[in-house]
């Protein structure tokens, strides 16, 4: 999150290197070759496993009242209780699912929509390109968090709204990158020849262009996923995410932050989970990025 | 070059205009009668009438927008529903608090990041360099409030009790409470630095490998002088844009940090306004933040143009 | 929030400051039914009864007391008769005195009045002032000032907060008999006048009072006031209560935000704060130099079930819901243990309070049976509208949702942030609310008659209405209490409220401040009784 503008900018100029032929399996294999990718996969997998299976191994349900509020440990409650006397560990185990689901949906939605717009703008050019990119620029004028806060303060916190807002704010950033990649592919012979034999435009976009932008696409997906996790978490932290009594890491942090002096676990556990998850996702993205363009993602050369 | 800049400026204005329209439409889309939704339990016929008038609710939407925008241009954002103060008057001290916070972060963070980046570049591929690369990658992925909470856990309530966990302030200006400022400023510094460090490192490596630096070394100049006189000034150019972009990020990123530390700035004002459904205040703060964001992004653009030798040459 | 020059902090911030403006509205509507209660008001009342017995040896004089009060906004007022928010209430308590006062245990005692006696019909009251009373600045307090104050409060062109409770006051016949004696006439019996006059918004002010130069008889004199931010008062050396106040200066600072308020105390920027959130008591206890004041109160945070709408139009469902609640757990979890269990009836400090009714306990089996009888054997799903309108309200909703699971009831929480919006409040089928301590008839007038301003359960029980209407007209205490007992039994059996507990008001202060005592009326910090506190030493 912290570097959102920079990363999208640099990622936009990243794929300026020779657009390699689509070799998706190769991309993953190359990425796996980097040590940091492996670390990223392990970190991410650990959190995803906790999120997916946590509820099944949890000692209590996420809403069960197990002891008095804000004790640091109790019988069957190794990490103590929250402001209402619910088990912090159980809520931690329950709290990842929705966050992951929302973040993944938002990242997918934003990347897909951005890809479509980027390819259309890059291939069709002309007024459509102009319209799409100018609209993008306006959308980019809102910091993502501010846009989310503005809309959610009016409509109220809803899960689908979180997905839509984060997705829409990702869209222009993805579209920029994909448009750049498309522009280079459009110039290539196989596109020209497909045009020459009268292949419909939509087919060219789907069959010729899309497969050739998968590398930047995957990098963008990873990047957007990292940011989505951060924004979903920060919205929860600001009290604009899921509503009580749902267990959610961001919400847990918000609910219990006032007592950080007497019951730090209630904040530390979800904070650690969000931290590990974002770090893991970013490391994977970094590996993918290096593999796709042969350089360290971002600004390193 | 000049034309390019004018072009960007013009587009910045158009964007600002579009943003104001979005903000207005979004806030006007309140379900039902905005006035009674706002007043709630305190609604009396007189107050409803007064508020509807203040919101120009009787006019067509286009006219409402026009009136609102014209007033906003003169910094008249109406009256805060919750406090009864003019929004501008309410926000002014908070804006200055936020600016102080951001200024501290920028003044401390930028030189530190530049130094770290250069240091890393000079020890390329050694342990320090790898460590820096890893740490900045990790820090860059963390949401800023996570950084803040970890700092609170370390320096305030967990291991060490060095600094207060929250900015409580006092009757004076915010900079009169340096102890309370440490954690919020540090959080922001950590949040904005990693990309600057990485960019500075990359840029420095490139410059160090360039011919004129090699020549300077051949001339027998001490390494310190080479770095200070020749390498560093040339390496900073490309980094300038990144710095500007990071400053732009601060405008929005400050919200979660102010909320976490209860720092009385515009970010906290926004959260309070959302809670109280204080529409004029929400409109003003969002416009303000978007405005700062647009302007600083614009500056970054211009700095980028100026730092790009190709554009500079062709403009001559 | 506390920086100088920042105007009006936003009320109703993320913290959980109770919106007292609404409480005020409710006070304002008291007059709907004349509630005769507590007619007698002995002339021998100890002026210090309110302060409680002085159990200290030698309070020290001097120092500036800085207090952080929950709430406040740019609408803050220092007018003796217009206090609305908590910070206003704190200020008027210290600038002005009333003819009567509530004692620590919610009894009415004399204050400026030496005696307040009704005639046989209780439609003419004679008040005699204490001797030697003076206003800030030295002018003597006379019967003329009493007449002026009451006339100002009930000015038909500009009625103040207290006007609604005295609709039958005959303003034209207000009369100063002599310097210290005044006659107050009503067009009908007004047996509970002493109770009404004790309210904080009925202070006595000098003839020609100008709120811009707020003069009263209170323990502190006005010095500075910045609406929405702070005020500074100085010690009134001529105060009629012997020796009080002890501190030289009183600074009241607005803190609408809970976290900021607590942190100001932790950081030593204030010496005391009002309304510590219950779950934060532990936080304060972790500091050696701080202490808390726990005041049991008659406040209540009910669940409200609309008796005219399914599924709650069925008495059995209402009863089942009341049996679902584990009240002790509710207090333990939602209030962190700071409260006492209640029994579905209100008016805790009313002499007629039916405290011998069997305490209702959780009984899931019985609840399930009742629900099955009502046709909900396969489970029931209800929406509970909740909001952060008072500390503990959303927490109670979360606990209830959990407890209801056991009985096969699914409670879906709908947390709204415009709870009191027109057309929504009073419409919710199943919701929550908060009420301050009040005696039974005054409370019933607010919320239980068909035409009451806040009848959130849409209660319109004919039998109950008949009994309570009769009680309202009954002057004899014993007779009236008997009727009120019947009324409470009806509500206990089929009312629309689930009254699970009374929260304890918790304040926090530095240990160097001495003299705070618990007050049951709900106003924090000994009803803002800063005149009786002092600093232990430098």
TrEMBL record, chain A:
The keyword Membrane applies. InterPro entries: BP-dependent_transpt_permease (IPR050366), MetI-like (IPR000515), MetI-like_sf (IPR035906). Residues 96-285 form the ABC transmembrane type-1 domain. The keyword Transport applies. It is a multi-pass membrane protein. Pfam families: BPD_transp_1 (PF00528). SUPFAM superfamilies: MetI-like. Signal peptide: none annotated. Keywords: Cell membrane, Membrane, Transmembrane, Transmembrane helix, Transport. It comes from the Bacteria. GO terms for biological process: transmembrane transport. The chain crosses the membrane at residues 39-57, 98-121, 141-169, 225-242, 262-284. Belongs to the binding-protein-dependent transport system permease family. This is Peptide/nickel transport system permease protein.
From TrEMBL, chain B:
It holds the Pfam family BPD_transp_1_N. It is found in: Cell membrane. Keywords: Cell membrane, Membrane, Transmembrane, Transmembrane helix, Transport. Residues 95-300 form the ABC transmembrane type-1 domain. GO terms for biological process: transmembrane transport. Its main location: membrane. One of its GO terms (cellular component) is plasma membrane. CDD domains: TM_PBP2. The chain crosses the membrane at residues 99-122, 134-155, 175-197, 238-261, 281-307. It is a multi-pass membrane protein. Belongs to the binding-protein-dependent transport system permease family. This is Peptide/nickel transport system permease protein. It comes from Murinocardiopsis flavida.
TrEMBL record, chain C:
It comes from the Bacteria. CDD domains: PBP2_NikA_DppA_OppA_like_17. The keyword GTP-binding does not apply. GO terms for molecular function: peptide transmembrane transporter activity. It holds the Pfam family SBP_bac_5. Gene3D superfamilies: Dipeptide-binding Protein, Domain 1, Dipeptide-binding Protein, Domain 3, Periplasmic binding protein-like II. Keywords: Signal, Transport. Residues 107-434 form the Solute-binding protein family domain. GO terms for biological process: peptide transport. The keyword rRNA processing does not apply. SUPFAM superfamilies: Periplasmic binding protein-like II. Residues 1-21 are annotated as: Disordered. GO terms for cellular component: ATP-binding cassette (ABC) transporter complex; periplasmic space. PANTHER family: OLIGOPEPTIDE-BINDING PROTEIN APPA, PERIPLASMIC BINDING COMPONENT OF ABC TRANSPORTER. Belongs to the bacterial solute-binding protein 5 family. This is Peptide/nickel transport system substrate-binding protein. It comes from Murinocardiopsis flavida. The lineage of its organism: Bacteria, Bacillati, Actinomycetota, Actinomycetes, Streptosporangiales.
């Amino acid at each position: 999150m912290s570097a959102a503008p920079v990363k999208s900018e640099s990622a936009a100029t990243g794929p300026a290197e020779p657009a390699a032929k689509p070799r998706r399996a190769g991309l993953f294999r190359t990425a796996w070759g980097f040590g940091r990718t492996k670390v990223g996969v392990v970190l991410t997998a650990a959190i995803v496993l906790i999120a997916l299976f946590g509820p099944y191994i949890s000692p209590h349900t996420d809403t069960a009242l197990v002891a008095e509020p804000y004790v640091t440990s109790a019988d069957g409650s190794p990490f103590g209780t929250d402001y209402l006397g619910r088990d912090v560990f159980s809520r931690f185990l329950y709290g990842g699912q929705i966050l992951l689901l929302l973040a993944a949906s938002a990242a997918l939605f934003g990347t897909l929509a951005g890809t479509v717009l980027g390819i259309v703008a890059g291939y069709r050019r002309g007024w459509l390109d102009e319209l799409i990119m100018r609209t993008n620029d306006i959308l980019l004028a809102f910091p993502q968090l501010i846009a989310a806060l503005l809309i959610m303060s009016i409509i109220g916190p809803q899960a689908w709204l979180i997905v839509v807002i984060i997705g829409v704010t990702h869209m222009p950033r993805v579209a920029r990158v994909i448009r750049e990649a498309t522009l280079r592919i459009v110039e290539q012979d196989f596109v020209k020849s497909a045009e020459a034999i009268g292949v419909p435009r939509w087919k060219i976009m789907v069959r010729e262009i899309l497969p050739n932008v998968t590398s930047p696409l995957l990098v963008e997906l990873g990047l957007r996923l990292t940011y989505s996790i951060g924004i979903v978490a920060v919205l929860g932290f600001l009290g604009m995410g899921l509503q009580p009594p749902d267990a959610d890491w961001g919400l847990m942090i918000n609910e219990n932050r006032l007592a950080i002096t007497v019951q730090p676990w209630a904040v530390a556990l979800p904070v650690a989970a969000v931290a590990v998850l974002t770090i893991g996702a970013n490391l994977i993205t970094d590996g993918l990025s290096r593999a796709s363009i042969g350089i360290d993602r971002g600004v390193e050369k | 070059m000049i034309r390019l800049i004018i072009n960007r400026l013009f587009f910045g204005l158009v964007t600002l205009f579009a943003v104001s329209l979005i903000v207005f439409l979004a806030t006007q889309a309140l379900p039902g009668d905005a006035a009674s939704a706002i007043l709630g339990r305190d609604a009396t016929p007189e107050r409803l009438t007064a508020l509807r008038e203040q919101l120009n609710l009787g006019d067509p939407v286009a006219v409402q927008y026009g009136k609102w925008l014209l007033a906003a241009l003169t910094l008249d954002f109406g009256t805060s529903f919750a406090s009864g103060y003019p929004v501008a008057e309410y926000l002014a001290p908070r804006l200055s608090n936020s600016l102080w916070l951001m200024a501290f972060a920028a003044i401390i963070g930028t030189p530190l990041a530049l130094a770290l980046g250069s240091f890393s570049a000079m020890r390329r591929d050694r342990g320090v360099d790898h460590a820096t690369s890893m740490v900045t990658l990790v820090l860059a992925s963390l949401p800023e409030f996570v950084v803040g909470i970890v700092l609170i856990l370390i320096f305030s309530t967990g291991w060490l009790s060095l600094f207060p966990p929250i900015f409580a302030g006092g009757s004076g200006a915010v900079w009169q409470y340096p102890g309370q400022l440490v954690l919020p400023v540090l959080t922001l510094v950590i949040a904005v630095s990693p990309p600057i460090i990485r960019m500075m490192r990359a840029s420095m490596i490139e410059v160090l490998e360039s011919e004129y630096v090699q020549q300077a070394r051949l001339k027998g100049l001490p390494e310190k002088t080479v770095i200070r006189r020749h390498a560093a000034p040339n390496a900073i150019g490309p980094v300038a844009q990144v710095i500007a972009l990071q400053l732009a990020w601060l405008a929005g990123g400050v919200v979660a940090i102010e909320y976490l530390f209860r720092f009385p700035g515009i970010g906290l004002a926004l959260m309070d306004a959302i809670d109280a459904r204080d529409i004029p205040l929400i409109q003003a703060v969002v416009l303000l933040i978007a405005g700062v964001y647009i302007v600083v992004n614009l500056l970054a653009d211009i700095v980028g143009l100026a730092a790009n030798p190709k554009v500079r040459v062709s403009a001559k | 929030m506390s920086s100088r020059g920042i105007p009006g902090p936003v009320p109703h911030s993320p913290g959980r400051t109770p919106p007292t403006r609404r409480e005020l509205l409710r006070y304002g509507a008291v007059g709907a039914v004349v509630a005769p209660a507590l007619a007698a008001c002995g002339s021998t009342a100890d002026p210090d009864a309110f302060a409680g017995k002085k159990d200290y040896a030698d309070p020290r004089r001097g120092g500036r007391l800085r207090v952080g009060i929950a709430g406040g906004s740019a609408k803050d007022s220092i007018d003796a008769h217009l206090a609305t928010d908590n910070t206003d209430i704190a200020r008027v308590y210290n600038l002005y005195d009333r003819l009567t006062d509530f004692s620590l245990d919610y009894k009415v005692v004399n204050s400026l009045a030496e005696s307040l006696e009704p005639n046989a019909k209780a439609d003419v009251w004679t008040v005699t002032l204490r001797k030697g009373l003076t206003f800030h600045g030295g002018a003597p307090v006379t019967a003329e000032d009493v007449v002026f104050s009451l006339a100002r409060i009930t000015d038909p062109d500009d009625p103040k907060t207290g006007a609604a409770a005295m609709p039958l006051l005959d303003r034209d016949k207000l009369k100063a008999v002599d310097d210290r004696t005044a006659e107050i006439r009503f067009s009908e019996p007004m047996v509970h006048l002493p109770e009404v006059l004790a309210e904080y918004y009925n202070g006595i002010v000098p003839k020609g009072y100008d709120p811009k130069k707020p003069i009263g008889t209170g323990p502190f004199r006005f010095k500075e006031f910045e609406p929405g931010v702070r005020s500074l008062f100085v010690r009134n050396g001529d105060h009629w209560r012997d020796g009080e106040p002890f501190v030289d200066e009183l600074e009241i600072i607005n803190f609408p935000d809970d976290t900021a308020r607590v942190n100001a105390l932790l950081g030593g920027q204030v010496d005391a704060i009002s309304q510590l959130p219950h779950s934060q008591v532990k936080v304060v206890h972790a500091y050696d130099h701080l202490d808390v004041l726990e005041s049991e109160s008659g406040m209540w945070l009910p669940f409200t079930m609309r008796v005219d709408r399914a599924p709650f139009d069925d008495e059995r469902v209402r009863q089942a819901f009341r049996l679902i609640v584990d009240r002790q757990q509710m207090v333990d979890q939602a209030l962190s243990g700071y409260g006492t269990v209640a029994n579905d009836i209100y008016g805790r400090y009313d002499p007629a309070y039916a405290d011998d009714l069997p305490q209702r306990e959780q009984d899931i089996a019985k609840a399930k049976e009742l629900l099955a009888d009502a046709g909900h054997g396969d489970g029931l799903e209800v929406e509970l509208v909740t909001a952060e309108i008072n500390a503990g309200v959303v927490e109670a909703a979360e606990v209830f949702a959990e407890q209801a699971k056991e009985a096969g009831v699914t409670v879906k929480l709908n947390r709204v942030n415009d709870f009191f919006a027109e057309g929504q409040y009073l419409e919710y089928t199943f919701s929550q609310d908060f009420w301050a301590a009040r005696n039974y008839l005054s409370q019933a007038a607010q919320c239980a008659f068909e035409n009451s301003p806040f009848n959130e359960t849409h209660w319109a029980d004919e039998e109950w209405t008949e009994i309570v209407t009769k009680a309202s007209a009954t002057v004899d205490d014993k007779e009236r209490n008997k009727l009120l007992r019947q009324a409470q039994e009806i509500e206990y059996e089929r009312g629309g409220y689930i009254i699970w507990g009374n929260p304890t008001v918790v304040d926090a202060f530095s240990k160097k401040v001495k003299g705070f005592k618990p007050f049951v009326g709900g106003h924090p910090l000994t009803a803002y009784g800063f005149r009786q506190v002092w600093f232990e030493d430098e």
